Amino acid sequence: MEEDIYLHKLNLRNVKPTAIRLLILRTMMEMNRAVSQPDLEEKLQTVDKSTIFRTISLFLDRHLIHAIDDGSGALKYAVCSDDCTCSVSDQHVHFYCEGCHRAFCFRSQAVPVVQAPEGFVLYGVNYVLKGLCPACAARPDKD
To answer: 2-138: which CATH architecture?
Structure first.
């Protein structure tokens, strides 16, 4: 049953499965790309903006989703894989399409390992490639 996937993901991160949380998680997974809070607000117009914000915050805190700063001015969020702990070793490459302004996770592409100098403590990596996604690259009107 399709709903079992969402319940499994919430239970794995100790998130109580309310109707709104299931709706937001399902929407994020169905969009099949990283989404911003405004993207979710547009898609879920019947859900209060503050509820979406609180749910995103909870999901981030429980490592159910990760945030992506793709340089567009709005953080994007993507659902983590079941084995992700959001540690530096779990970080992967992201791609920002300058045509449609969508961000995509390249889960199979790990970020390059960088050794910080002594005394520095590394908590995260933001590695974003920029260009055109296949749909935008195929458009005849591309720049």
So the answer is: Orthogonal Bundle (1.10)
24/143 Cα distance (integer angstroms): 35
Residue 86 annotated as binding? Answer: no
Q: The tokens of 65 are what? A: 């989703």
Question: What predicted TM-score, i.e. pTM, was given to this entire model?
Answer: 0.79
Render pLDDT for 90-109 as a digit per residue (tens, 0 to 9).
Answer: 778 889 999 998 888 888 88
CB 110 within 8 A of CB 93: yes
pLDDT in tens, 46-78: 999 999 999 999 999 999 999 888 888 889 999
Q: Has 84 been labeled as part of a binding site?
A: no
Strand partners of residue 120: none
Which residues have a Cβ under 8 Å from the Cβ of 118 and sit 6 or more positions away? none
Of 31, 83, 80, 25, residue with least CA distance to 55: 25
DSSP symbols for the chain = -HHHHHHHHHHHTT----HHHHHHHHHHHHHTSBEEHHHHHHHTTTS-HHHHHHHHHHHHHTTSEEEE--SSSS-EEEEPPTT----GGG-EEEEEETTT--EEEEEEEEPPP--PPTT--------EEEE--HHHHH-TT--
